[in-house]
Amino acid sequence: MDNSNMNGLSVLDRVRVVLSRPSHPGNIGAAARAMKTMGLSRLWLVSPASFPDPVAEARACGAVDILGSARVADSLQEALSGTVFTAGLTARRRDLSATRLDPRAAAAELVQWSQNTSGEVALVFGNEASGLSNEELGLCALPVTIPANPAYASLNLGAAIQLMCYELRLAAMEQTGGTPFLPAEPLPEPATNDEIEKFFSHLKSSIEASGFLDPDKPRRLMPKLRRLFGRARLEKEEIAILRGILASFDTGIKATRQKQ
Amino acid sequence: MDNSNMNGLSVLDRVRVVLSRPSHPGNIGAAARAMKTMGLSRLWLVSPASFPDPVAEARACGAVDILGSARVADSLQEALSGTVFTAGLTARRRDLSATRLDPRAAAAELVQWSQNTSGEVALVFGNEASGLSNEELGLCALPVTIPANPAYASLNLGAAIQLMCYELRLAAMEQTGGTPFLPAEPLPEPATNDEIEKFFSHLKSSIEASGFLDPDKPRRLMPKLRRLFGRARLEKEEIAILRGILASFDTGIKATRQKQ
Predict the structure, then answer these.
(1) What is the ipTM of this complex?
(2) Segment 121-150 of chain B within 8 Å of chain A by CB
(3) Does A24 touch chain B (CB under 8 A)?
């Protein structure tokens, strides 16, 4: 958006807002409106119940352009493809929750990643009733939780999107206005979402072959490993190293099998 | 609310959310829901177009109790009576703008006033279409403006309320000394330094055995792997998983060697 660029907030154009399985077209319209008020523009919809829909257009008010350029994907993987960093909203407490970020920290991290890499980042919201599934959340590098009343933490989807987009705008303003003349140290190139997914596929097949992962009794092993490497925010070179290590192990495993 | 008191957030019970001349009952419901998610409870309505209204109840979801205890006033003066500090939302630029607060500063000030005086404070929102009139804004001690896209600053009323209530909750948590994040889930037990060193020894010997790491040409592989896992801050359980994986690979490698 020209306006964002003028304000040095072009980083907001590289933030995808991904709605996974939204049930109510009104919420898609509310998302578009919330995004546009904060200068965001890239809306992705994964298997929306109804889209396009006149109800969405009515709720979007002056933000129908965001609906017009929205992308529809068949899977969350597809919507995240090509991103360098992803964060997913969750209200639930679960055992993987210890590394959750609050909205402010998550916004700072998303903006920083996008700025350092010029790559796209994604903020993922789940279905209105059920939120993100464990599997969906597992595809995100980090979970984000909005601090809410423990007795009633049920934010409306549009309200949650508004709040996150607001924090993203503030983070973008802060980071572009903070120390504009001190260029950040160039960070090593981060792995893309695709590279990370390929690594996890490789890891899974290697530890299945080695007998460590029993496909019939997976014991939440892969989610735990995703959480570990998600915290690390893998770099491109590290993926190459890890996959090299796996390949060197694969050879040994194949040899064992041939022997048997 | 008991819950707020338990968390030292009783100050939120002294914040009135005042909607002046709301046109759409749906927005009154959205306001109730947004307030309750952040632990606020005192809703005041000045000359609402329709209240009570089933549309408001539907939109309030589990926050109908807030609607039930809402107060209806004939004038903004009446709704502000008895408060010690008031802030009014405005998107418009006008000559008062030099003293406008952003949401974060406004929330901090509201909480501080209420805490220092044990009095009630009010946050005032205008009509959906026209906002607060100059006269209404004149009754508030300070104007507040949400930083928004100058090309499209039209926040939905419910979204604006959600955002302000969120900032109030964060401000209350900060001023009462709580962390601005969710209370205390027990962190998974971190690995000790000793356990981490044993893991790195194991990793080194496994990738030497697999042929990936050449002891004569180590190529900074181990420092790179240390950096990766260092960023993740390994937990005790994760060390057990990683060493289990290595052991499963070691078996394959040993078999290969015996074969050779």
Answers:
(1) 0.71
(2) 146-150
(3) no
